[in-house]
């Protein structure tokens, strides 16, 4: 199989098809397009569970993984309360790498009041770069029913922040800056690198839930196009998206042109997608808290999921294995 996330076809055929047991506590199980599960846990609360994994640059691995986990939890209407840490390292690395990851995770968990419940660290001779996996649990009010697959025909699609910004920031790590300086100024690269500072979308998710939104998706590694597809697939609906309404920074566009990649397919950590009957009101509510947002399209009864760019129409497809 190709490197990266398995395809949606493989997921359905070789993973989801084999999950048959469902207890009386299960309120939301695994499904294509969903990033978390839900169990009934008491009279007023449900337990939310989610897992993420990232690899690569150890200096940013902890931050990316933590916020992807916390954002997925928030997009399910919950709050991350505890997590397990699994860190696999390639042979020959020093102890400083472990300390760097743990320092970042400890700092973030303390800042967000998240307990570290335990974990596992191991050096594997088959790896060429570190792999960090976080498994988290949290709590949600039993009355909330928020998930990716709650879109309904007629809903507006609202997107916060900017497409591909965190992915572009990852592309310009220090290892590649020397080559980039032949085309871009340091000031330009510094602005593009700021995408790693806006990875947290938990506050925006809380605003959306308080507004009554039930269809939410944290974009993260899926990229904007991948997340849109997954929301439509999980909901069984079509989508009609106006590309020109999707906010994107000029720095992201130019960095992606340099690396020959699509900014709408690369990571968009900190970006939230929401489906709501009145997108303009939700945008106003976000604006009132300083969060940039825009209505980028609508949900349709037809199964087609299309992106309109002037006279051109592109059909969204399931995220390729290498996209996420």
Describe the protein in words.
With 324 residues, the chain is of the alpha+beta class. It is built from 10 helices and 13 strands. It has a 7-stranded mixed sheet with strand order 8-10-7-11-9-12-13, sandwiched between helices. A 6-stranded mixed sheet has the order 1-2-3-6-4-5. The longest helix is centred in the first third of the chain and has 18 residues, at 58-75. The model has no long low-confidence stretch (mean pLDDT 89).
Task: Give the topology, please.
Blueprint: H1 8-15, E1 26-28, E2 37-40, E3 45-55, H2 58-75, E4 78-90, H3 95-111, E5 115-124, E6 131-141, E7 156-160, H4 165-171, H5 174-180, H6 186-193, H7 202-211, E8 215-220, H8 223-235, E9 238-242, H9 250-259, E10 268-276, H10 279-287, E11 293-300, E12 305-309, E13 312-315
Parallel strand pairs: 4-5, 9-12
Antiparallel strand pairs: 1-2, 2-3, 3-6, 4-6, 7-10, 7-11, 8-10, 9-11, 12-13
Helix pairs in contact: 2-3, 2-7, 4-9
Quaternary arrangement of the chains shown? Answer: single chain
Q: Which stretches are low in confidence, meaning pLDDT under 50 for 5 or more residues running?
A: none
Q: How many E strands?
A: 13
N-to-C SSE string, H for helix and E for strand: HEEEHEHEEEHHHHEHEHEHEEE
Shape: globular
Estimate the mean pLDDT confidence: 89
Structural class: alpha+beta
Strand content: 25-35%
State the helix count: 10
Helix content: 25-40%
């Amino acid at each position: 199989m190709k490197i990266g996330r398995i395809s949606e076809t493989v997921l359905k055929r070789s993973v989801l098809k084999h999950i048959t047991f469902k207890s009386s506590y299960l309120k939301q199980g695994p499904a294509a397009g969903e990033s978390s599960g839900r169990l009934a846990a008491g009279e007023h609360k449900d337990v939310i569970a989610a897992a993420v994994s990232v690899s690569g640059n150890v200096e940013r691995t902890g931050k990316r993984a933590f916020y992807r986990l916390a954002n997925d939890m928030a997009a399910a209407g919950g709050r991350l309360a505890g997590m397990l840490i699994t860190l696999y390292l390639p042979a020959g690395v020093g102890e400083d790498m472990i300390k760097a990851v743990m320092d970042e995770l400890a700092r973030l968990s303390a800042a967000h009041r998240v307990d570290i419940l335990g974990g596992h660290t191991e050096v594997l001779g088959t790896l060429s770069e570190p792999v960090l996996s976080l498994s988290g649990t949290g709590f949600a009010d039993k009355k909330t029913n928020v998930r990716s697959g709650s879109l309904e025909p007629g809903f507006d699609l609202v997107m916060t922040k900017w497409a591909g910004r965190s992915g572009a920031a990852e592309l310009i790590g220090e290892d590649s800056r020397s080559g980039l300086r032949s085309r871009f100024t340091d000031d330009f690269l510094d602005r593009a690198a700021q995408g790693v500072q806006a990875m947290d979308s938990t506050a925006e998710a809380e605003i959306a839930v308080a507004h009554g939104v039930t269809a939410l998706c944290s974009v993260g590694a899926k990229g904007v196009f991948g997340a849109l597809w997954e929301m439509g697939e999980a909901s069984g609906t079509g989508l009609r998206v106006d590309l020109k309404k999707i906010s994107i920074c000029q720095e992201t566009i130019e960095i992606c042109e340099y690396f020959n990649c699509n900014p709408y397919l690369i990571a968009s950590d900190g970006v939230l997608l929401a489906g709501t009957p009145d997108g303009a009101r939700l945008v106003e509510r976000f604006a009132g808290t300083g969060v940039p947002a825009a209505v980028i399209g609508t949900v349709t009864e037809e199964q087609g999921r299309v992106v309109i760019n002037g006279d051109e129409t592109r059909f969204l497809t399931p995220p390729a294995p290498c996209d996420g």
